[in-house]
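does this look right to u?? cobalt (II) ion version
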Amino acid sequence: MSATLDHLFDQNVAWASQKTREDPQYFRRMAEQQAPRYLWIGCSDSRVTANDVLGLDPGEIFVHRNIANVVHTSDMNILSVLEFAVDQLKIEHVIVCGHYGCSGVNRAIAGEHSAMLDNWLLPVSMFYRKHRATFDAITDDVERVNRICEINVEMQVRRLAATPIVENAWLRGQTLHVHGWIYAIHDGLLRDLGPHVSSIGERDRLPSIDQMVLQPTEAESAMRRQAIAAFGAIDVTDPRLHACCPSGRIHNS
Ligand code: CO
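got this back:
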């Protein structure tokens, strides 16, 4: 393989020419303006790309990604993205989207402390230590990480909804919804974890993140219902379908 990465330039030319063949005005339209309707805050994981997961074209979603989709309220990067999305682009939906099997979350609970990354992951690792007895009661390693992946999304939704940027938008009457979703790499399906915050009142009525740890997730997951709707023909009772995404069954007992 060439050290100059010529193959990527070749693929770029092939992509641009295909797009132009399909729609001669495509790039002209792209260059005029961006008017995305959504802001995606997701993990840097290379398998979780917002446009692909949602089937959206360039221009349709504004994106911020970092390891384990953490909302640090002192992070100029995420705050700048959020401010631009809310104040300038007037985006109405902010989606915090984690994913099952997140390596960042896995590392956060592993007790590592040798890299910058471990500073980044501190909100997750500190929360894990606070509720360690509850989380460690989940004996299966994969299930434990997946549950913390879900709780991490819930936590970041609350942190995002507490930022002055979001709060000020609500105070001036701007429409802004904050959602918490999670993505399953093994079947490509999103799950809505439930938090849907559209005002200061709704934010303040959310159960605290400490309470969320003790609440079971719904038995019949939204992901499962979505799978039924999406792939009606397949047998969704086949346990292999959810082999690495067990949150629907681990918290029923
Ligand atoms: Co991840």
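The beta strands are 38-43, 61-66, 93-99, 177-184, 189-197. idk if thats expected tbh
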